[in-house]
Design brief:
Macrodomain Ori protein; DUF413
């Protein structure tokens, strides 16, 4: 990948949302997780205004972040994916549902009561 984009001053991590790392989260490919680790520090600093863009690629990145342009490079796409995942609430799926369990118990209880009342 030939890029003018600056490497981060340090490896980028997000221990709050991706405690086990980007690559083990199941959300990012190995390439995406490596790009985030290497360039994420710079992308975050650019996006937050901590540093200023030094070239056309970094300027384009800022336009993508402000949603004035569509992401084109792999770096822009992975950053937008990261932003989408960190800003949205994660869906939580369970194997059981209280509503169904409650309705089964109610149905069983009513059948038992009607069975007992028929014998009386």
């Amino acid at each position: 990948m030939n890029t003018e984009f600056r490497f981060g001053k340090k490896r980028f991590y997000d221990d709050q949302r991706f405690k086990r790392g980007f690559s083990k989260s199941g959300e990012f490919t190995l390439l995406e997780s490596e790009l985030l680790s290497l360039y994420g520090d710079t992308m975050q600093a650019l996006n937050s205004g901590e540093i200023m863009p030094e070239n056309a690629e970094e300027q384009h990145f800022l336009l993508v972040c402000s949603q004035q342009l569509e992401p084109e490079s792999k770096l822009e796409k992975v950053w937008m994916k990261y932003q989408r995942l960190t800003r949205s609430r994660r869906a939580f799926h369970t194997l059981n549902s209280r509503c169904k369990a409650a309705s089964y118990e109610t149905d069983d209880e009513s059948e038992d009561e009607s069975f007992i009342s028929d014998d009386d």
